[in-house]
Design a protein that fits this description.
The structure holds two protein chains of two kinds. In chain A, 0% of the residues lie in helices and 45% in strands. By secondary structure, chain A is mainly beta. In chain A, a hairpin with a 2-residue loop joins strand 5 and strand 6. By secondary structure, chain B is mostly beta strands. In chain B, strands 2, 4, 5, 6, 9, 10 and 11 form a seven-stranded mixed β-sheet that branches. The chains are: A mainly beta, B mainly beta. At the A-B interface, strand 7 and strand 8 of A face strand 5 of B.
Chain lengths: 110, 118
């Protein structure tokens, strides 16, 4: 059972937009920055978004992040077949003094 | 370029220990923390703990307290994660990942080390 809650799967057609939610609590998302990771099959996770809404160099602006209270959202526009992957949210939990992740969301581009 | 290179796959028997290494290159090893994250087949990411290579300070997830030890050798820019009393539940891919001090996001990841307990 993950500390952060994500939907198991989402899907959309190429070119469309999709959002992935991440729900937490006042001790994690409500207090600390959220990051998002993309994991392609058989590879290590890759940082997509950090500090809730910042993109590392090289990450296209099709990827965006936002936050509202104890929930965060990853948005992906202009979907491509190459975006098919598992997406994880993560942050620090101040009560647990531990890093925490969501259970992951599998994106299918139909 | 900045990278973390992990040691090769391991097969261990139940009750044994495993030590995975993570060699940093392309940056000053002691300027960033190293975190360890594991992933069982078909499962999500599980944070295990962090280490500050400069001070050797560590923080472990409660689940692994008493069973995990994170160390480093600054002379060769390498971090280690040792997990003891292995069971089949520890079969997973183990990743090391770099974070900045005080920041939760893992900006650079190793490719992972598969540990099989059988």
């Amino acid at each position: 059972q993950s500390v952060l809650t994500q939907p198991p799967s989402v899907s959309a057609a190429p070119g469309q937009k999709v959002t992935i939610s991440c729900s937490g609590s006042s001790s994690n998302i409500g207090k600390n920055y959220v990051s998002w990771y993309q994991q392609l099959p058989g590879t290590a996770p890759k940082l997509l978004i950090y500090d809730t809404d910042k993109r590392p160099a090289g990450i296209p602006d099709r990827f965006s992040g936002s936050n509202s209270g104890t929930s965060a959202t990853l948005g992906i526009t202009g979907l491509q077949t190459g975006d098919e992957a598992d997406y994880y949210c993560g942050t620090w939990d101040s009560s647990l003094s531990a890093g925490v992740f969501g259970g992951g969301t599998k994106l299918t581009v139909l | 370029q900045v990278q973390l290179v992990q040691s090769g796959a391991e097969v261990q028997k139940p009750g044994a220990s495993v030590k995975v290494s993570c060699k940093a290159s392309g940056y000053t090893f002691t300027s960033f923390n190293i975190n360890w994250v594991r992933q069982a087949t078909g499962q999500g990411l599980e944070w295990m703990g962090w280490m500050n290579p400069n001070t050797a300070n560590t923080g472990y997830a409660q689940k692994f307290q008493g069973r995990v030890t994170m160390t480093r050798d600054t002379s060769i820019s390498t971090a280690y994660m040792e997990l003891s009393s292995l069971t089949s539940e520890d079969t997973a891919v183990y990743f090391c990942a770099r974070t900045q001090t005080g920041q939760p996001h893992m900006e650079i990841w190793g490719k992972g080390t598969t540990v099989t307990v059988s």
